[in-house]
Design a protein that fits this description.
This protein has about 240 residues and is mainly alpha-helical. It is built from 10 helices and no strands.
């Protein structure tokens, strides 16, 4: 009964902790100066897949999942760093060393001090929960980058779309659990984010290119669906900025 009650309490805490841990991951990616592909691959692995799967392991009798028993913000921050580490191994030739990662964790994780062995154990747990499936080819970041490059090739106004703003929009969508639904369909979310970023960063007097029909032509998504998703993204971004 006690174990069941604890598991219930922890599952209720997960949505509360999620926002702060995702912000921690984003800030850590900035501080570690990792390439954007590493950052967004890590966000996909951690926020889209790992975080939604861990509730079933918190009450497990398997002691090998000890870093999830109980779930704390510090432990989740450890796994966020591990997701960046794994992503760096996938996408860079010189990923951070375990020594550097531990030193960074010592500085950034305030409530708990983790040893080198803890980082190694966390990596194994992370991989096991994902069933060792760590492919990141099908993520919004890649589709968005490709879509923007295509846009620049067909229209001069594409050069006015601010890439940093596109990434800021992606970050904001990850920070709240209710808006991560956009990432369930990476290609359509990339199309909607491009349109939202276009409206945010391109001066109104330059709004001559028919971007919605063009995105429909390139992606085959229905115009009404793309517009609705872009509107929802804009409402969230503008609400966050207010």
């Amino acid at each position: 009964m006690v174990g069941r009650r604890r598991a219930t309490m922890e599952s209720e805490m997960l949505p509360v902790l999620r926002s702060s841990v995702v912000k921690f991951l984003i800030q850590s990616a900035h501080d570690l100066e990792v390439p954007p592909i590493v950052k967004y691959s890590a966000l996909s692995l951690f926020a889209d897949r790992f975080y939604s799967s861990i509730s079933g392991f918190t009450s497990s009798n398997d002691s090998s999942y000890w870093l999830l028993q109980p779930i704390t913000e510090s432990n989740l921050q450890l796994f966020a760093l591990v997701s960046l580490w794994i992503s760096s191994k996938l996408h860079t030739s010189h990923p951070p060393s375990i020594k550097l990662l531990k030193a960074f964790g010592d500085k950034m994780i305030k409530e708990q001090h983790f040893m080198t062995r803890d980082f190694l154990d966390a990596e194994v747990i992370f991989m096991r929960i994902l069933n060792f499936e760590i492919g990141t080819a099908n993520i919004t970041f890649i589709f968005l980058e490709e879509l923007l490059n295509q846009f620049k090739e067909v229209a001069k106004v594409g050069e006015l779309v601010n890439w940093e703003a596109c990434m800021d929009v992606m970050d904001l969508l990850y920070e709240k659990e209710e808006t991560t639904v956009f990432y369930r369909s990476p290609c359509s979310s990339a199309a909607a984010i491009l349109i939202a970023s276009y409206l945010i960063t391109v001066p109104v007097q330059e709004w001559e290119f028919p971007i919605v029909p063009w995105v429909h032509f390139v992606t085959a998504f229905k115009e009404d669906d793309i517009v609705k998703q872009a509107r929802d993204i804009l409402l969230h971004v503008l609400e966050t900025d207010c």
